[in-house]
Amino acid sequence: MNYLLNLPFVAKMAPDDYVGFTFFVGCMAMMAASAFFFLSMNSFDKKWRTSILVSGLITFIAAVHYWYMRDYWAANMESPTFFRYVDWVLTVPLMCVEFYLILKVAGAKKSLMWKLIFLSVVMLVTGYLGEAVYRDQAQIWGLISGIAYFVIVYEIWLGSAKKLAVEAGGYILKAHKTLCWFVLVGWAIYPIGYMAGTPGWYDGIFGGFSLDVVYNIGDAINKIGFGLVIYSLAVSMSAKKEA
Predict the structure, then answer these.
(1) CA 155 to CA 159: how far, in whole Å?
(2) What are the angstrom distances between the C-alpha of 239 and each of 51, 52, 171, 187, 214?
(3) Taking every pair of C-alpha atoms in the chain, what is the biggest distance, in angstroms?
(4) According to the 3-state scheme, what is the secondary structure of the chain?
(5) What residues have CB less than 8 Å from 199, skipping those under 6 apart?
(6) Tens digits of per-residue pLDDT, 175-215?
(7) What span, in angstroms and rounded, lies between the C-alpha atoms of 198 and 121?
């Protein structure tokens, strides 16, 4: 019993440990976002509740993983690659689901959703294999991961998802464009981080450069930002319906 009482419940953090600080802040920010999304669900009709629920699940899953990653960092002072990819393989496909949910009003089919989910899983699994398992072949796995990412980008910017958004128009098109920018710009930190953490021809550019702080800030912005775009769309569409 005395042994349990002496266990540290809060890991000691150095004042200049910016990685640990961003892990903690990211966890709290996404936990707060989850509470906000879950509590606001009843403010909308059934059509938008699923979208808000998914937004809350994305930030909640990330908050739990960030709690563990903060402790892992404090104990080992190394990047929690495994936990990070477990988080991504759960949350990134859910972010892709959001495209399908907002485009359902324009006739989006489930095949679009499963296509985006499949591509996101390929992107993440091959990224993990290159960064953590087969590091000597990091460039090959990174290439496969990059191809999957760019197919997603093409699909939402120029493919069938874009066509559906244009057909829907109005608030749907505006929200779709904003989410597309999150994928194109916000998700760009992930391939950069991959190159920073693996050997290759890019060593002279990213070699030895730790991007944990950028990962943490970018993750929070991407996940919370996605949810806020969906929330804003739900508010706008509900107001339009009432008017």
Answers:
(1) 4
(2) 17, 16, 11, 31, 36
(3) 66
(4) CHHHHCCCCCCCCCCCCHHHHHHHHHHHHHHHHHHHHHHHHHHCCHHHHHHHHHHHHHHHHHHHHHHHHHHHHHHHCCCCHHHHHHHHHHHHHHHHHHHHHHHHHHCCCHHHHHHHHHHHHHHHHHHHHHHHHCHHHHHHHHHHHHHHHHHHHHHHHCCHHHHHHHHHCHHHHHHHHHHHHHHHCHHHHHHHHHHHHCCCCCHHHHCCCCCHHHHHHHHHHHHHHHHHHHHHHHHHHHHHHHC
(5) 135, 136, 138, 207
(6) 999 999 999 998 888 888 888 778 776 766 765 556 788 88
(7) 20
Q: CA angle at residue 4 from 74 to 78, to 5 degrees?
A: 15
Number of Cβ within a 10 Å radius of residue 47: 14
CA angle 158, 163, 166 (to 5 degrees): 115
Neighbours of 79 (CB within 10 A): 20
Q: Which of 105, 112, 110 shows the shortest CA–CA distance to 233?
A: 105
Residue 13 scores a pLDDT above 70: no
Set out the domains of the chain in order of their start, with CATH numbers: 16-242 (1.20.1070.10)
Predicted confidence (pLDDT) per residue in 34-53, tens digit: 999 999 998 888 889 999 99
For the chain, how big is the Rg over CA atoms in Å? 19
